[in-house]
Structures are given as structure tokens and as C-alpha cells.
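Backbone-to-sequence.
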């Protein structure tokens, strides 16, 4: 039974990480496009009116991708709760990067500002 739960969690985790990577790649590509358009327009000595609608569309796409990223981060948080509920809290999935709030207690006191 534990083996089946772990396999299910690994399958879902792989799909989650793929979705996160795809959204991040889309953000990076769209940001590059949005940054390139005004530079290219200036280099071609064109009026600022040229391509304004396209630039605004790319900026709006960036905003939508930001909302999508927020959604996949929320999904990730919910799946972390499900992982704990399945009894797999001690199992690590992914690339090993620690999530904020996942720091292990060291037993040492820290200074608060």
C-alpha cells in the first residue's frame, strides 16, 4: 500500500514539476519578446506608435502568466498538504530545493531582530 501511494505521489510530482517549468519558460520567453519589441523598434527608427498593440498584448500575456504561476504555486502547496495526509511527509520529491518554511530545526536559538 505504501508503495502504491509513493508511486502515485511521484507521478503527480513529476507532472507538477513539468507544469511549473513550462510556466516559468513561458514567462521567460514572453519577457524576452516584450523586451525585444521596443528595442527593435528603436533600432529601426520607427515611431513609438508602431507595434504598441503588440507590446501591450505581450505585457497582458505576462500578467496572465503571473496569475498562472500563482495558481501552480498554490497547487504545489495543496499537494504538499496531501503528501503529508498520505503519510509521505518525510519523502522528498523533486530536485531537492528546500521550500520556504521547510527548514529543519537545528536545536539552536536564533536572534530575532
Amino acid at each position: 500500500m505504501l508503495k502504491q501511494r509513493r508511486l502515485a505521489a511521484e507521478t503527480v510530482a513529476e507532472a507538477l514539476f513539468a507544469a511549473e517549468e513550462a510556466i516559468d519558460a513561458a514567462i521567460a520567453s514572453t519577457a524576452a519578446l516584450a523586451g525585444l519589441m521596443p528595442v527593435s523598434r528603436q533600432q529601426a527608427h520607427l515611431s513609438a506608435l508602431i507595434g504598441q498593440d503588440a507590446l501591450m498584448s505581450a505585457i497582458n500575456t505576462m500578467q496572465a502568466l503571473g496569475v498562472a504561476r500563482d495558481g501552480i504555486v498554490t497547487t504545489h502547496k495543496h499537494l504538499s498538504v496531501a503528501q503529508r495526509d498520505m503519510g509521505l511527509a518525510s519523502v522528498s520529491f523533486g530536485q531537492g530545493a528546500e521550500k520556504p518554511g521547510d527548514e529543519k530545526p537545528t536545536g539552536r536559538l536564533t536572534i530575532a531582530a
